[in-house]
């Protein structure tokens, strides 16, 4: 059902399709998380995200939302300052542009994940764990796209991944909305 709604020639998504998907998400998350859905924040975020927001390859907002959703259960009062640093881990692989490197090159590899996680672990193993988790979520999300990632570079130049969808598509928006919903449920 979800894939039928998401697939279209123009790669657009209708409001009716979003609400149909959110109904399915509601039934799944209500059972698992016990969190009732509030439709208004979703509608507002959808409008901001899809029509007003800047749309780029696997959008920055999606990487941040998935990083926070993956990390939020590990944050407590003693390490709350680690959250912003850890969430940067979900964005740092795409800073290859700023460094003048090829996009989805060395920064999208296991080698970069291990080196940066190791460096943060020297300061604190908890910070290293949170950084590594966020960095990993970035790699995982990018591996879902048709392009994939050079996971084993420089050993192999082959791009690996699940190759499920194109970037900048409705699936990206859906992943963001689901993570936003999970974050709001876990926050309460």
State the helical fraction: 55-70%
The percent range for strand residues is under 5%
Radius of gyration (Å):
17 Å
Main beta sheet: strand number and arrangement? Answer: none
The coarse silhouette is globular
Describe this entry's structure for a reader.
With 188 residues, the chain is an all-alpha fold. It folds into two domains: 1-55, no CATH class; 57-167, no CATH class. The protein has eight helices and no strands. It starts with a helix and ends with a helix. Residues 1-16 and 47-57 have low confidence and may be disordered.
Brief overview:
This protein has 8 helices and no strands.
Write the layout of secondary structure elements.
Blueprint: H1 2-6, H2 15-33, H3 39-52, H4 60-71, H5 82-88, H6 110-123, H7 125-143, H8 170-187
Helix pairs in contact: 2-8, 3-8, 4-5, 4-7, 4-8, 5-7, 6-7
């Amino acid at each position: 059902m979800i894939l039928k709604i998401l697939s279209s020639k123009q790669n657009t998504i209708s409001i009716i399709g979003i609400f149909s998907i959110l109904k399915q998400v509601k039934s799944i998350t209500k059972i698992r998380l016990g969190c009732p859905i509030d439709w208004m924040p979703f509608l507002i975020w959808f409008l901001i995200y899809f029509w007003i927001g800047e749309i780029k390859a696997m959008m920055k907002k999606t990487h941040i939302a998935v990083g926070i959703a993956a990390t939020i259960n590990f944050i407590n009062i003693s390490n709350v300052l680690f959250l912003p640093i850890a969430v940067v881990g979900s964005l740092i692989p795409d800073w290859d542009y700023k460094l003048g490197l090829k996009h989805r090159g060395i920064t999208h590899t296991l080698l970069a994940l291990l080196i940066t996680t190791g460096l943060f672990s020297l300061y604190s193993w908890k910070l290293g764990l949170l950084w590594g988790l966020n960095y990993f979520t970035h790699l995982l999300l990018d591996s879902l796209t048709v392009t994939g990632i050079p996971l084993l570079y420089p050993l192999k130049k082959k791009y690996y991944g699940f190759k499920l969808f194109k970037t900048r598509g409705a699936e990206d928006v859906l992943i963001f909305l689901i993570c936003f919903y999970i974050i709001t449920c876990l926050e309460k």
